[in-house]
Amino acid sequence: MTRSTAPTNDVAFRQAAAQARARARRLTLLKNVGIFLLIVAVLAIMLFPFYWMVLTSLRSQVDNVSRVPVWFFTPTWENYRNVIARNNFFDFTWNSFVIAGLSTGIGLVLGLPAAYSIARFKQEGLAVAILVARLTPYITYLVPWYLAFRALGLIDTYLALTLTHLIVGMPLIVWIMISFFENVPLDLEEAAFVDGATRIGAFMRVILPLSTPGIVAASILAFIFSWNQFLFSLVLSGPNTRPVPVAVFNFISYGQIDFGGLGAAAVLITLPVIILTLIIQRWIVTGLTMGAVKG
Amino acid sequence: MIRRSLRILVFSALLLGFAAASAQEFDWRRFEGTDIRFMMNRHPFTNWLEPMVPEFEALTGINVTLEVLPEDQFRQVRLLEVSSAAPTLDGYMVMPGQVGAQYLGAGWLRFVDDFVADPSLTHPDLDIDDFFGGAIGTFESPDGLFGLPLQIESSLLFYREDLFEEAGLSGPPETMDELMEYAAALHSDQVAGFAMRGRGAAATSQTVNLLYSFGGRWMDEDGNSALASEESIEAHEFYAELMRNYGPPGPANLHWAEVTSLYAQGQAAMIFDANVFRPIMEDPAQALDVVRENTRYAPLPAGPAGSVPGVLVWGLSINHASQNPEASWYFIQWALSKESQESLLLFGVPAARASAWENEEFQATAPEDWIEASQFSFEVGQPDWNPPVVPVAEVRDAYGQALIAALEGRDIAAALSQAAQAVDAIVARTR
Amino acid sequence: MKSASAFVDRYAFYIFPLPAVLAILVLIVAPVLANFVLSLYDFFVGGRAAFIGIENYQRALADTRFWGGVQRTLYFTFTAVPLQLLIGIGIAVLFNRDFPGKGLARTVILLPMVATPVAIALIWALMFNPSLGVLNHFLESLGLPRSLWVAQSNLAIPSLVLVDTWQWSPMIALILLAAMQSVPAEHYEAARIDGASGWQSFWHITIPGIRSAIVVALILRAVDALKTFDIIYVITEGGPGTASETLNVFAFKTGFQFFHAGYAATLLIFLMFLVLGIAVLLNVVRRRV
Predict the structure, then answer these.
(1) Do B249 and C151 touch (CB under 8 A)?
(2) Which residue in C21, C170, C261 is closest to A143 by CB distance?
(3) ipTM computed for the complex
(4) A245 contacts in C (CB within 8 Å)?
(5) Fewest CB within a 10 Å sphere: which of A168, B146, B203, B372?
(6) Are residues B89 and B210 in the same domain?
(7) CA-to-CA separations, A202 to A184, A185, A191, A199, B330, in angstroms, rounded
(8) Is residue B18 part of a domain?
(9) Which of C152, C258, C259 sits opposite B252 (nearest CB)?
(10) What is the pLDDT of residues A70-110, one digit of tens each?
(11) Residue B266 covered by a domain
(12) Of B238, B237, B266, B272, which Cα lies nearest the Cα of B254?
């Protein structure tokens, strides 16, 4: 642009051009600083509630109910001790692990063949049906479930909770895996058939091993969603099966005075989820959008 | 089944001449090794009970699990578990005035008359006649006795004498008009003049005190809701004026935990809530020193119809689906024995046994004004602190809507008449 | 053995999806059908069920609380979703460049949407507390008056919208970010040569390029916002009064606090049609763009 065709490079023109460039550089710099600050602001807002959660969990009761927020203090582990010792926190965590683990496992067993079938045989109607199950409000199923489980004496059993949590995990697994299976070249499968493999054999020994990363991502997502599930567990769990979200809601409510305990419980329940998220962060949005967006 | 085979066993024992091992005698260790689970409200009674449980376990060999939930969740979870007929729940805290009609109607309570009549299951010192008539009465139904009362509770005015002195006030307000004047005199940016519950359905057990004292009622002679009566409108206008002008910020958010913690943290000069919360105001971990040293108690100030507080009774009952009703009955007897009730009263919870109130240590240590105000309230109080209907939760919810409307400055008469219609519709549907 | 696998091979089309289909029939289709049956009964749990025909539907249509619930559900959704879209686009534009720590920043904005909603809701409830909450402290230090947040009827839903927006704007941002990266760089180059300003190229190149992603994000968010339960139930339980009682929460209370299974089923049928109706409607829009 600045390369002039005329050889008459008079001094004034060059000075003006240099000034313009400097101004543009200053502007770019200013713009970059502005953008940088905006990004920092966005991140600060996203992180603040977590920061506050941790702070609350480490503060004493007196500091937590102070009229003016206390930002600097000597941290105390008392709240964690209380939550863990007094409230059987480990039992609830175990319940959450069992329910999320079982429902994810069964979700894989049911979901993987279905996803393969949808991908291979283009069963789009089935895919849509599973999507509708995801779109329908979960609470719609809850009243009949409650009455049925009550009649069968299954309230407060891992069975009831696993079955209901299946509704959270299985559609997710199916939709993530469809696109994975679609990307497995047909040739590989056909080569297996030529070698005398059955459909199940090819599926187990060729397709699934090639899709391991997808299966891992889908399983972890299904696990997280089951871990976070509140509504089903609120109604269908009991003393033997109560998972962490309901336990936290039950033993510490807004009305309670124990802010520090609340913070500690919130940290403990969120921590596993955050760790899992770090492992499969690429897949989170894919999962949340039922595969509508590829990570 | 077990009991029958036990009887056969005893009978054979008698035949053989070993009369010493008679099952007629009460034996604390009879249900050794049984596990029972009680669901409890996070209530001062529970705070008293929790550290005592090992004593019971050592005495009987029965293992007790107390599941303690904050009140709202407690109600919700108890309802779900009791209705699901799961045998994992053996007993629970219950307020007959609240859910008695619903639970009895659905058959969710286990009657204990057969236990009371059986000297091998009921300790000779239980002395049921020792419970206040008004307290045990709420556990009596035409079909039998469905539990025992643990406390009799009424709401009192808690006030800060030091702030009263600063404001030039002497003694507690005796009438509703005085209450308003005092609240105005005490109110500032830092300290609310007055606080009581405002959180919809949860507040109705407190506003009923105003309703009664202004001459209102739940139901008229025809069994229709009387919430839209003139007296009721007057009571709720008073409530709205008091709370809107002299209450803490966000009155529609106040449950008892908020009300008591505001007061304990020195942010309210007077509160009106259950007398059972006295221990909070005496606990250095929860209340500021200035609050602990200066708290005084008085009965509900008199309205146009006098001072007519509601009287609430909490007790322990056995779940209909329990598979260990006998062991649960052991636990209830022990938790509500004379000694236990004395200890409970010394802890600050108004016990349901007359004998406990005569305890000398209690009379010497408890604040005199608390004793007097409590006893006065029990005498003049009304047991129907809840509308006498089956769908209580729904009716309280409908009434709670009117309270929110009042606290937010909307048309009170209109809100009450809407609530009354809603209540009538709810009652008609569940009839 | 051989014939069994031949059978499977031959009918793989039916056999592979069969377990999942059975699960869906039992766990999803059956309860939805059961709701239609239940909705014809007056069933107070613990009492007896009585057949009452379409009375529950008539009752719902005349119930101001039902209509209030519908209204609040729509109010919540159609305030929250557009707000999240705007903020989401903003974040996407902001993040659609190279800057140090970009990977970390993308991870950070994932946290609100994966953290356990109950924990999130409890922390927000603490921050909203009118007397002790940190949000009022921020307002005061900015010289603004204190707010009652969820303790005041007309602020309850806006406060919940704030939580929902914090939680879900990042998801929209990440969806759009993925779409933005697939807009060919040459288009921007060409626009720059034509002398287009940054704003013009955003409006004429970026937005058309990510249009379908925007619609997908809108559908997903709208459907989820319509059925928001956790944060509303934990923070306000629908209160004060019914100020934040969405259809979802009202149906839950009717079923599991007031114990009217029949009426709750009726409300759930309405909710289901509302959500699926809006999903279909938005899907029609999606086909148009």
Answers:
(1) yes
(2) C261
(3) 0.91
(4) 116-119
(5) B372
(6) no
(7) 12, 13, 9, 5, 64
(8) no
(9) C152
(10) 788 888 888 898 888 777 788 999 999 999 999 999 999 99
(11) yes
(12) B272
